[in-house]
Each structure stands twice: as C-alpha cells, then as structure tokens.
Amino acid sequence: MHFNSSVTQISSLPLTGDPTPNDFEIDNKDLAEVPLTRHSGTTFVGDGSFVGLRNNSLVNQKSEELHNTFLAHKQERQLIILQDFPDPDALSCAWAYQLIAQQYDIKCDIVYAGALSHQENIALVKLTGLPAQRWTIQTLKSKDLSSYQGFVLIDNQGTTSQLVPVVQEVGIPIVAVIDHHSLQSDMKSDFFDVRPSVRATATIFTQYLQYGLLTLDSSINQHVKCATALMHGLRSDTNRLMQAQEEDFMAAAYLSKFYDAQLLNAILQANRSKRVMDVIERSLKNRIVQNNFSIAGVGYLRYDDRDAIPQAADFIVTEENVHTALVYGIVHDEDEELEVVIGSLRTTKLTLDPDEFIKEAFGQDSSGRFFGGGRTSAGGFEIPMGFLSGGNENSAYAKMKWEVFDSQIKQKLLRLVNPKDNPIQSE
Ligand SMILES: [Mn+2]
Prior knowledge:
By secondary structure, the protein is of the alpha/beta class. The chain has helices at residues 29-32, 51-72, 88-102, 119-128, 137-140, 163-169, 201-211, 221-237, 246-255, 261-268, 274-286, 308-316, 354-362, 395-417, and strands spanning 77-81, 107-112, 132-134, 150-154, 174-179, 191-194, 288-290, 293-302, 324-333, 338-347, 372-375, 378-384. The chain has 14 helices and twelve strands. The protein has a six-stranded parallel beta sheet with strand order 3-2-1-4-5-6, with helices on both faces. A six-stranded mixed beta sheet has the order 7-8-9-10-12-11, with helices on both faces. The protein is globular. Manganese (II) ion (MN) is lined by residues 89, 155, 180, 200-201, 237.
C-alpha cells in the first residue's frame, strides 16, 4: 500500500503543544548528570510557525512531568497493561517504559489478555526477548494483585483491554496513560500524555529517551534490542515511515544510532501462516466494492487468528480504485465461550477520519462506550455478541447467525458509503 500523497497533509495538520517555549530544569541529582539531548527546535515551515520549537516545549514539559511521576512512585511495583492484541508499537513502548522505570527502582510487569497473533509480533517478542506476559482473565485470578501499587496504559486508553476493569475493581490506581489514539476516556491518571497528532507511541517514547529519561548505550544488548523494537513499532504505525511526519523521522533518526538493522530484518521476514492466507483469500472472495470502499466479511475465525483481519484489510486496500477497506469477522474464544465481531479499517483517503467513521457507523453500547475508534489511516471495532455467543455445533444456526451479523454490519457501513441509499428499504 502506498500513501505517497500523504506528504501533502503535513502542513495542514494541527500542531499540539504550547506555543511559548519553556525550559524545564531537572531537579533530581542522579538524573541531572545524565547528558540531555534536546534539539534546538528552529525548523521553519512555510506558514511561519516553528514546528520544532512548539513540539520541543511540549516534549520537555511531558518528559519532565514523567520524570516527576517516576520520582513520586519510587520503589513501586507497576503493571503495564496493553491492549488485548498488542502491536509492535505497544510492545516496544511498554519495554521502554519498563527500562526507564527501572532507574527509579520501579518494577514493571508487561501484560496483555488476548494473544500475539500477528507473525511479526511473535517474531518481535521471541527475537528480542521482549518481556511481555499473557495474562488471561483466568490467570488473573491466580495472581496476587495486592503487590502492585499502580497500573499504566500504553498505546491504549483502557478501552481495548479486558484486564483494566478487573484491575480497577481491586482498587489499583492508574499512574500513567501514554498514547497517540484520539481521546477515548476521561480516566484520571497522575501522568497523562495522549497526543493524537503523533503517528506512533514509539515516537513519544523515543522523545522521552532523547530528553534523557534513559541514556541508550550501544554496548548494552537490551538497549539495542529495545531500540530495534521501537524502530519496528514506529515503522509499523507509520506504514513503513510513509506516513511519518517530522517528529517521527526525528525519532527514527535517533533510534538509527542504536538499533540492529539485521535483527529488524529478521523480525520483518516472519512469514504469514496458512490460516492468515486463508482469511485474506476469503476477504478477496467476499469483498464488495462501492464508491471506492471495499467491504469484506470473512465469517468465523479462531481467537488466535484475530490479527488476520487487519492483515486482510491491509491487503485489500491496495486494490486499484479502492481508498478504504473494511474487513470483519466473528472471532470465537473457545476458552471463554465468547464471540465478538472484530473489524478493521484501512484508508488512504486523507479526508476520511477512521475514528469518526467507525463511531458514526456503529455508535455506542448501552453504557455509552463506542464500539471502536481509530487513528490516522487505521481503525477498528469490536462488537460483543453476548447471549448469541456459541451454539455453532449446529452449522445451520452458525450460518444464519453469521448472515444476520454480516447484513447488519453491511447496512451500517453502506449508510455512510452511499449516503443517498436507504439499504433498509425493501423492494
Ligand atoms: Mn500505536
């Protein structure tokens, strides 16, 4: 997929940050000795604003706040909670957080409830030794949660993890939220850095590193591997840097001094499984193209193959005359006897906001929570099937159930794709 035209977007993007440059001094003795790399920030852009300067001030402010948050939580044990199906951006940033936190004697465990279903994620975790653990709701029951004094959300805001409600229920306070998705909840945390204008959370974390919260050292194996993981996260959230903006490139440039290109290549070489190929095949067979939207329902999938859906969307958006792909299916979790409709959106259309599109198409559940959302060029949704879960031994029933969900999702999508049509109208 190519997004060559996306460069035209850069100058029109909203800039975050305080326009007044501020200098923040580090008051902690240990860290004051760490050499701080701050770029001078005088990049001039055509409209007369100083991009680097504005961002620099926000980065300094946030890095300083995070430093103070770590100081206030010294010697704690924290849980880093990722989305149920964490991607390279989430995984790498959690690792960076863990390494930064270590310097303040804070011990972190990185957990997710779902699965690592993308072959590249499995390769990333195996090849770098990335310390993430799978904690299902089941395993959570056997854990002593009282040893944790706080939890942290990275590359998510708690709306895509099954673990968050459980952890909140036992009263563990939220310490930090660091993300680049659009604002999804009003969770109050000690530290909050959500920047939807940034293309990857890995960029935000690299900025913390550059500020001096952790000095990367090429002779430390773990640092090299973490830098490689961050580079992978940054690349994968920016469509191999094609949608990257100045600050993402700056972050990539910094990481380039530490990462292992061969290791990254090994991660990217991971092959697709046969089951993923089968789902892509189904999406090709079932797709309907209307008004440059390609929509494909792929039927039932095993829980561990969930990531085949975004991969199929990545693929079908590459078709000529298609700017937006939507792929969805029913994911069945055998352990929990639960079913959920999972969908992914990919778009190359600059004026289409995936977050708005998905919220508009599917609306909210009874508690006011949206079924999905997104960021630049990508989005996703999850619709729990509740009472209708299971019973698929009866294949006629399973088929009927799929057809109902398939039609309902198509109706909701086509209403936005063809605004004049009324798909409910019967002939
Ligand atoms: Mn991300």
